[in-house]
Specification:
Elements: E1 3-9, E2 12-18, H1 22-34, E3 38-49, H2 55-63, H3 72-75, H4 87-91, E4 96-97, E5 100-101, E6 103-111, E7 115-120, E8 125-126, E9 139-145, E10 148-158, E11 169-183, H5 190-199, E12 204-207, E13 210-213, H6 219-229, E14 235-250, H7 256-282
Helix pairs in contact: 1-7
C-alpha cells in the first residue's frame, strides 16, 4: 500500500496515500491534534508585573507561545506522569519520573528603563537550551516608563486533548483525490454543460461534447463551481477509490515528520491498550 511524499518542509508535510481506509487516516489526523505531546508553559509565578496586562492574561500569552519540543519528547517525563506534581515540588525540582524531569524552567526579566519597549519571546531565558520559543519575534507585553515584568514559568509535556496550547498541529487535513465529474444529463443537457464550462473556465472544459475538469484543478475550485456557478444541476465530483491527500502543518514546536510519527505511535499504543483490556476481560 504505497505512500508517496508530495511535499515536505520542517513544519509541513503532504502525502498521497493509497489503499488505506479513511478511518485510519482520520485517526492519525485526530491524534496529531489531540494525542501527540509537546512542551508548553503550564503555570507561571509572577514576581513583578507593572504592565497593563493582568497576571492571568500574561500567563495565557506565555502558555500559547510554541516551544521547541523535539528533544523534550526523549528527555522529559510523559504528560501522565506529571499530573500529581504540585507547585512546591516543581520549584524544588522534585518532580521526576524514572529519572526524567517533568518541568523545564523559563525566566523573563524585562524593564522599560524609562522608554517604550515591547517584550518579545527572544527575551525569555530557558534553563534548558533545547526548550525555548520557536520564534524570537512574538510580542508578549508592552512596557513604558518604569514598568517591569519579572516572572518564572514552568513548561511540561502535554497533549492537545488537555488544552490547545499542547497541540503541535495547526493544520491536519485528509482530502479525497478528485478523479473527474459525473453529469446527470436529464438535469443538465449539452447546452447546459457548455454554459457551465463558459461560466467556470478555471475548472471546467468541454471534451467530446461532455463537461469535464481541467488538469490541475483543485477540489475546492470544482466544488465552488458546482455549487455556486453551475448551481448543482446534477453535476457531482468523482473521487479516486481509497486514495487521499494527507496534509499536516505544525506550529514549529515539532517537525511535521516527528509529529506524524508520534501521532501514529499514539494510535498504536491505544490499540495495544484496548487489546490488553479485551484479553483481561476474556481471561
Amino acid at each position: 500500500m504505497p505512500i508517496q511524499m508530495l511535499e515536505e518542509t520542517p513544519i509541513s508535510i503532504k502525502l498521497l496515500v493509497k489503499g488505506y481506509p479513511l478511518a485510519v487516516l482520520n485517526a492519525i489526523r485526530r491524534a496529531a491534534l489531540e494525542l501527540c505531546p509537546k512542551m508548553a508553559i503550564d503555570f507561571v509565578i509572577v514576581e513583578r508585573n507593572d504592565s497593563t496586562l493582568f497576571n492571568e492574561v500574561l500567563a495565557h500569552r506565555l502558555a500559547m507561545i510554541p516551544l521547541t519540543s523535539d528533544e523534550a519528547l526523549d528527555h522529559y517525563a510523559p504528560p501522565e506522569a506529571c499530573a500529581e506534581c504540585d507547585c512546591r515540588k516543581v520549584e524544588t525540582g522534585e518532580c521526576t519520573y524514572e529519572g526524567k524531569p517533568c518541568y523545564a524552567t523559563l525566566y523573563l526579566d524585562a524593564s522599560a528603563d524609562g522608554k517604550y519597549k515591547i517584550v518579545y519571546t527572544k527575551d525569555i531565558i530557558s534553563s534548558d537550551e533545547s526548550i525555548k520559543p520557536v520564534y524570537d519575534n512574538i510580542p508578549i507585553v508592552p512596557l513604558i516608563g518604569n514598568q517591569k515584568v519579572k516572572l518564572t514559568a514552568y513548561a511540561r509535556l502535554g497533549r492537545g486533548r488537555e488544552h490547545a496550547k499542547w497541540m503541535p498541529a495547526t493544520v491536519a487535513v485528509v482530502k479525497p483525490v478528485l478523479k473527474d465529474i459525473s453529469v446527470k444529463e436529464t438535469l443538465c443537457n449539452e447546452e447546459c454543460q457548455r454554459e457551465c464550462a463558459e461560466k467556470c473556465k478555471e475548472a471546467f472544459t468541454m471534451k467530446d461534447g461532455k463537461l469535464t475538469i481541467k488538469d490541475g484543478t483543485t477540489l475546492s475550485m470544482v466544488m465552488y463551481c458546482i455549487e455556486y456557478v453551475c448551481e448543482g444541476k446534477g453535476i457531482r465530483p468523482v473521487f479516486e477509490e481509497d486514495t487521499y491527500i494527507f496534509e499536516l502543518e505544525t506550529d514549529g514546536s515539532l517537525s511535521a515528520r516527528r509529529t506524524l510519527k508520534e501521532s501514529a505511535r499514539a494510535i498504536v499504543q491505544k490499540l495495544e491498550a484496548l487489546k490488553r483490556k479485551l484479553e483481561e476481560k476474556a481471561g
